[in-house]
Amino acid sequence: MVQIEKLATRTPAVSVDELLKGFYPSPRFGQVSFASYRPDPKQPSQAAAVNALQAFAGGVGAGDGGGLFKKLFGKKDATRAGIYLDGGFGVGKTHLLASLWHAAPGPKAFGTFVEYTNLVGALSFRKTVDALSSYKLVCIDEFELDDPGDTVLMSRLMRELADAGVKLAATSNTLPGSLGDGRFAAVDFQREIQVLADQFDVIRVDGEDFRHRGLPAAPAPLRNSELHAHMKAEFDGKTVAEDDFSTLISHLAGVHPSRYRKLLDGVDGVVWRDVETITEQAVALRFVVLADRLYDKDVPILASGVPFDKLFTEEMMNGGYMKKYFRAVSRLTALAREGQNHEPS
């Protein structure tokens, strides 16, 4: 028997303490390590990235001692405070970042870019700096700048953490000097963007999307009449959130993205009826956050309606946020494949 709930009826609340305690790798990356990463032998940059991150991990916390006086007047480390993994979708950047987090001593934080900006919104900038300045390592996954405010915010945050001796590590699909391109007048914020770039040594990770490497094409959307049979075959004895897609989209507008992780608590799978192409940019960007949280929690998807490669308009897929949308399509496709592992009897 499948227990059915609806995401569209959930309105989770998240305290500041819960936000801070949530800065660790998701269950999907809860047990990963450098040893469990499988570099593609055709892409030598992948093995090189493993070696670079292992060396970086060895330096985390190495400069401890000496207290505030040393931080203020001691000799500055000759190396940059951060390491930045640049590469395409599905080459294992998050796996490598989580492996670094597991290998490094604490206290430490691991979260997505949007989770850090949400933390600042919940705590205030100064309290966020105070909270994270005592950490040895701050890992930032999916580093992207969506607007000028985020550019200035993250520039200040990274600079102040680096000055406090915190090691930084980030992943992105965009080189740090190119963050913001196509989203806003990046030239007007070049100083802040350059401050960000100056914090990191860039490590390139090449390769093809492992989520589709050697795998069949994404399953075609189901018909509405097929959803319950597939739901029973895939999720018998589990809890499923079943929603009309349009209702879910409307509900997300009233739930802050910092709460999307908790929105999915206790959900083993999701079922969406009548998926349709999203035509509004703000709605699409919110949905990208949900897609990321679903992927973090490894929540399989069953869906009817349009296929996920038609979830965003062609204009969006070729616009300033195209990398976010391609990542979302890649991840949703992988989860849709997981959702049809069992054929109905």
Automatic annotation (TrEMBL):
One GO CC term on file: cytoplasm
Example of a GO MF term: ATP hydrolysis activity
Entries under Pfam families matching the protein: AFG1_ATPase (PF03969)
Keywords: ATP-binding, Nucleotide-binding
Stated name of the protein: ATPase
